[in-house]
Amino acid sequence: MNKTLIIIQREYLSRVKKKSFLVMTILGPILMASIWVIPLYLANTSNEKKVIQVLDETSLFKNQFKNTGELTFVPVSMAIETAKNGLSASGNYALLYIPKTELSVPNTAILYSGHQPSIDVKSHIKEVMRKQIESLKLEVSGVDPGILKSIKTNINLNTIKIDEKGTETESFTEVTMVVGIFAGVLIYMFIFMFGAQVMRGVIEEKTNRIIEVIISSVKPFQLMMGKIVGIALVGLTQFLLWVFLTFGIVMIFQVSMAGDSKLTKTDKMFSPQGKILNAEQLKEFSEKSAEKDDLNIQIIEAVASIDYLEIVGSFIFFFLAGYLLYAALFAAIGSAVDSEADTQQFMFPVTIPLILSIVMAQFVISNPDGQVAFWFSIIPLTSPVIMMVRIPFGVEPWELSLSMALLVITFLGATWMAAKIYRTGILMYGKKVSYAELWKWLRYKQ
């Protein structure tokens, strides 16, 4: 046991001291935090003013294009060729040309620009034109646009989970789906990343003939277990550092952005772009603000509804158990070959269940309580990923216990088989190993 602990310590310290570990530990949280930080930063610092000239030959869209925080619309009256030729010299962002057509209501416009117009600009222009055209068509049909606007209704569908005791808790399917997929993909990545490290480490030691010296004082099984557990602790350490550092970066950024906010809520309500809102504009602004506040409250409630203790605890278990299972298989592959190029024939059947679990994750999300989801979360080779996808949706305790028990039993069986292959393979050089040869190694009585 003491020798196994020494090997665990050696494997752990030799990897956490590497520059690659330190670099990835720093870059990982930065990349993960950037998913939230960059969009938020761009949304708060995008103050570029875009001036768009509007040449409307139909006169149907007069005063319809209102200025926004980023877009300023300037009506022009000149020939289209003159306007196009003067666009570059004017320094304006774009020229919107609405040609006069034979139709009573035009539905086509052209946007000239020296830049590639953004999706937001195109969407805004299309939305303004769509509303105006629909309003004109309603007037022609004798329908009051105000009536149509008044009957539009937003439906809020809240979901409530009722457990066996009758306790009601609000649930959020979208957040649950994201958490499940994110946890499953993380398990998949870490198993592949650190399982491959075990295989490469065995191949390297075997190629350098270091293994011959090591096993003179350590049993092959102790060496294999020490290597597997040591690298597992490296993966767990890196994951925990990623979580805390990512959370820290996001929180620091949010605090700094909150400190930079200069406008109060009253300022934003009554003086956007320095103008006082009239009664109708104030009502519309208040409705939008209320919708935004409701959305923020829903997001906060959705995040708070997640059972972090269950998610994190299950993640740690399925990461470690799943990694230990696949690491034993990877170690057996590494001991059976002389180079990484020879691993392909053995890697394919081992990695197929992992790849299949990622492919099936989207179907599991659609029906987390179905038979496919149940069996894939019970079968040990796919359960580390699929069970993590299912857990946020709610899993019966007996299903979770069965999945964990089968995973542990399979890990012990895989470790026993891998140890038999490892015991023979680590001293085998220069021979192409087949599946028949591996079967003979498993039947050896030593």
Helical content class: 55-70%
- The poorly predicted ranges are 261-277
Largest sheet: 4 strands, mixed
Q: Give the count of helical stretches.
A: 16
Give the overall pLDDT as a whole number: 76
What proportion strand? Answer: 5-15%
Encode the helix/strand succession as letters: HHEEHEEHHEEHHHHHHHHHHH
Work out the radius of gyration: 31 Å
Shape: elongated
Query: Which structural class best describes the helix and strand composition?
Result: alpha/beta
- What's the total number of strands? 6
- Side by side, the strands of the main sheet go 2-1-3-4
Q: What gap, in angstroms, lies between the N and C termini?
A: 21 Å
**Any idea how many domains?**
2
Supply the key terms:
446 residues; alpha/beta; D-Maltodextrin-Binding Protein, domain 2; 2 domains; four-stranded mixed β-sheet; two-stranded antiparallel sheet; 7% strand
Could you explain the architecture of this structure?
- This protein has 446 residues and is of the alpha/beta class.
- 68% of the residues lie in helices and 7% in strands.
- The protein has helices at residues 2-16, 19-45, 80-90, 119-141, 145-151, 173-207, 210-214, 220-260, 265-270, 279-304, 308-336, 344-366, 371-378, 383-390, 397-425, 435-443, and strands at residues 50-56, 71-75, 94-98, 110-113, 159-162, 168-171.
- Helix 8 (220-260) packs across helix 11 (308-336).
- The two termini are 21 Å apart.
- The model is unreliable at 261-277 (pLDDT under 50).
